Amino acid sequence: MPINTDVVIIGAGPIxxxxxxxxxxxxxxxxxxxxxxxxxGQCGELYPEKPIYDIPAYPVIGAQELVDRLVxxxxxxxxxxxLKQAVTELQRKEDGRFLLTTSTGTQFDTATxxxxxxxxxxxxxxxxxxxxxxxxxxxIHYRITQAKKLYGKDIIIxxxxxxxxxxxxxxxxxxxxxILIHRRVEYRAQAASVKKMKALAxxxxxxxxxxxxxxxxxxxxxxxxLLVADADGNTHELESDxxxxxxxxxxxxxxxxxxxxxxxxxQISVDTEKYQTNEKxxxxxxxxxxxxxxxxxxxxxxxxxxxxxxxxxxHLDPDxxxxxxxxxxxxxxxxxxxxxxDSI
Length: 344
Ligand code: FAD
Prior knowledge:
single chain, alpha/beta, seven-stranded mixed β-sheet, five-stranded parallel β-sheet, binds flavin-adenine dinucleotide
């Protein structure tokens, strides 16, 4: 059975999170879907430890701290998050509502959709070398779901970040052989993990290799290994049963671009009154949208989320008179925020 709701927000980046708040103030509950395993969008995924200097009232705030504070701010609304699943399909229903389906099969029957999908869904960066397409998701994997399946095998791990190093340290004594290939000498992973990995390589328990994947090798249609070029351009054939790739994630607009919405330069066109797309009931806020004068800034997205919330309220109940209320003085807002009398 699809989940019946007034609003689905696609994307739990900073703007999707603040959208929950703005809707909550108007007593509208939303379900939030994100392809990532955690909320925070670009702030959490691309630059959690970097400082941001242009959030009003914060001379400086860390990107992850901003996400944490947004999560605190929406706590009163007990939002349901549906993480690790991308929204893939949109169907228009005859009654004007929408049926949304995610990559894990969750379905929503919703009156409105707010697309806060930023740069798109984050997907693992794929191996694009010649021959890779034949073995992607067969012998070339982008996640490890059951580590036990790798025990006793010859494996190659690609990457230099925390995921690549963590799996190397976890698996080196359980697999038959492990080659760690990273394109650079410097690693992005934690220094302690790099130190442990180097010690294993010195003891000959793993092989550490620096180079670029040039080709995926096969014999009679079966995967055999990788052809890797070192810093001097010399190529090496490195054989394995399987390859595990941890090159991080990159955003991909993906299915959202195929839903028949007006798109200009990979962004969804909206008006600046409601932040509505060319389709009634579908709104777009944050980095995903475009309009005359658009600036891809967090504070612009916050403003868009406030106006989109009022527009959603109007869409849900066209006859209802909407009054602007201040959170400082409105008892009804205090109630929605769950404030206790003595804290007001
Ligand atoms: P995002 O943060 O991109 O979040 C979108 C979310 O939607 C993602 O989590 C994604 O997984 C999800 N998603 C997308 N498609 C789907 C789908 N189909 N199904 C499910 N989930 C989906 N801005 C500033 O204002 N000040 C700064 O100082 C600043 N510094 C920055 C520094 C760096 C290094 C970078 C990269 C950006 C910076 N920005 C800054 C920009 C700011 O991070 C973005 O404007 C902001 O993250 C946009 O938020 P968003 O919620 O619209 O999108």
